[in-house]
Amino acid sequence: MIWILGMAGQICWNIENSWFNTFVYAKIAKDPSIISWMVGISAIVSTLTTFLIGTWGDRAGKRKPFIAVGYICWGVFTMAFGATEFVPKNPLNIAIVVIVAADAVMSFFGSTCYDAGYNPWTTDISNVHNRGKLGAAFAAMPVLATIFGAVVSGMLVDALGFFPFFTMMGGMVTVTGILALFMLKDDPGLKARKLEAGYWRQFAGVFRVRTVLENKELFWVFVINAVFFTAFNVYFPYITIYLNNYLNMSYSLSGILQGIGLVAAIFLTLPAAGFIKRGKLASVILFAVLANVTGLLIISRFSSHFVLLIGIFGAGIGYVLMMQTVTAWVKNLYPEQQRGQFEGIRMVFAVCLPMVIGPLLSGFVITQYGVHRVIDGVSGMVPTETLFLVSALVTILTVLPLIPAGRFAKMRLQSDASEPK
């Protein structure tokens, strides 16, 4: 069930993060500001939802209802998003509001089941000894989903169009939710955890300064997450648009390039799991940052398919190892009675801030340094290689929070080693 729910969720997130943007660019308007609004609002909705539902799950001592019902509705509203293709484009502002609202509703159900339900559930059923392997699975799943999203989805969109594609993918996610109704089991040790007198007091308790001071290492890891994935969201929502409209590739070819590069990157999760188990978390993240920066620089400099593949491989290594390491790191640090609630805090740093700040940066870069192109009779701005240079610069900043996070991790591991067994 970890793999079934995880892959269905990651495929659906990949469709939202990549194909929704491509769909809007192709069918609605070639305006990067629409994508910025869509990505930013969905990130805020996702974060608030994870806080609210995560706290509810902690207090109820249940994850299954949120997972199963959430997946069913997530799929339904993915299909509904595809139907926005038929919304009248005149006036354009009305179409934009409908599209942004549809994406926000889909994000609400996606975060209810995946971020507030599924993620804490995987923490409930795992332990400190196997979270390196769990982190490897969590790192592999978005990559496999990206490969599916790039290769298979590209072929489906080329062959069928966007609406049938969104309908098929949404149906798959809904079926997964129905499956969870019958197969998923909550951790037997999961109990209702009402730490405060009421829901809202417990909800607000996580925002106290004392909470940060009691979890310093965890919050520095959250900052690492925020910086790296801000850089990621500078380029990732536009990489397919860049390959298709700036380098003139088909959806299928751009998908194959991304797919091959990312598949190769997955194999590094095996040795990385060993380093993570030995506590070499900071070292793995430093390697991930360097690989990511190198890959982005290569993508920005070359248009040869083979060299682009090397660049995508480098960026993929960074993404995969960062996901794997941070997943294991934070799950080992979550307070046991507030796992769902702390998923909400993680969402602030891993989703909300990156998906608001990243697209704002990209929108500025594309507007200032993009090129005008007429595509399908419509004039618009197309991203250029500058986008990847800016992303590489932001990625380098990840090293700054890595220094204190690594220091706190070293102190914790030394303290654990000195304690009597």
UniProtKB/TrEMBL annotation:
InterPro entries: MFS, MFS_dom, MFS_trans_sf, MFS_Transporters. Keywords: Cell membrane, Membrane, Transmembrane, Transmembrane helix, Transport. PANTHER family: INTEGRAL MEMBRANE TRANSPORT PROTEIN, RESISTANCE PROTEIN MDTM, PUTATIVE-RELATED-RELATED. The chain crosses the membrane at residues 34-54, 66-86, 92-114, 134-156, 162-184, 218-236, 256-276, 281-300, 306-326, 347-366, 386-405. The keyword Cell cycle does not apply. SUPFAM superfamilies: MFS general substrate transporter. This is MFS transporter. It comes from Paenibacillus vini. It is a multi-pass membrane protein. It is found in: Cell membrane. It comes from the Bacteria. Residues 1-407 form the Major facilitator superfamily (MFS) profile domain.
